[in-house]
Amino acid sequence: MNDQTLTDDLEAALLERARKLADEHLAHAHSIRDQIIEEENQRLRLREEREVLAAKEAAERLYRQRVQASELQLREQMERQRWELVESAMTRLVERLRAMAGDEDEYLPVLQALLRDASAPIPARELIAEVSAQDLERLQSRWEAFATESVADKTVSLSSKALPCSGGVRVSDKENRVRMDNAFEGRLERLDEVLRQVISERLFAATDVMGDTHGG
Hints:
This protein has helices at about 5-100, 105-120, 135-140, 145-150, 185-190, 190-215, and strands at about 125-130, 155-160, 170-175, 180-185. The protein is an alpha+beta fold.
């Protein structure tokens, strides 16, 4: 074997070795590229999952906010309607009392009861009663019998001054130190909160029961 043959063989071996190294480096580069692509895809998937989850949470928050806003608006509307209905019922009650004051057969027994109840807690034996202008006109001529029938154990005089009210009576001692207001307006003012509560309970009992049932 001559020198030329040895040289050719060495060159061929070096070239083969170089090709193998190049192939190895290329394969390694491809592997690194694939790994980078897979990692990037994984990051993208994770980011997409986080974005989807964040979007779902944002949508859920928005939905809850809208539901709460709707519930608050509905509650405010119901409270406003409740107030309006109670006010309407109170107005009708006042109108009913005024209408009753115009019907002597119905009204005078009620007035006697109011006079009796107003006189009872006042310790004085001589009392003064004040009534509306309408009652003053209708009772002035028969007051003594009316008062005696109502309050047998005390003397109740009728004031000549009309009380600015739609009905009922206000009773005081002669010195006006103790006074009991049983005029319609006075009783309505004292019982305003209780009356509104009773009216509200009567008007909305069925609605509240249904609400509790749905709520449970």
